[in-house]
Amino acid sequence: MAGFYGKHLAAPERLPFALYSSVASFSLVVVIGDIGVRTHSVSPHVASALLGAGLLSVLLFPALAGALRPHAAAQPGTAEAMTDAD
Fold first, then answer.
1. Where are the domains of the chain?
2. What tens digit of pLDDT does each residue of 28-83 get?
């Protein structure tokens, strides 16, 4: 995904964009793990590891992306400007 938008993003915006784009849909990970365990193609231990990795990606990647994203100056009338005024 970042390859399509790479030329439209500034260098500091690319890593946060990649992190936001790589967040797994946790419900999809749960369903895939369940199907794998039910069909005996994935062991319960592997399914648990997949769930743990999916949960970490859902929790950590957006937080990391938000911390790494360059913050532009707040424009008047935006939520950031109103928060800064308080």
1. 14-68
2. 889 999 999 999 999 999 999 999 998 888 888 888 888 888 775 555 555 555 55
Task: Give the N- to C-terminal CA distance of the chain in Å, as an integer.
Answer: 38
The answer to whether residues 47 and 36 touch, using CB atoms and an 8 Å cutoff, is yes
Which amino acid, residue 54? G
Pull the structure tokens for residue 62: 């957006």
Q: Is residue 20 within 8 Å of residue 60, measured between CB atoms? A: no
Number of H helices, E strands in the chain: 5, 0
- Give the angle 42-23-63 at the CA atoms, nearest 5°: 130
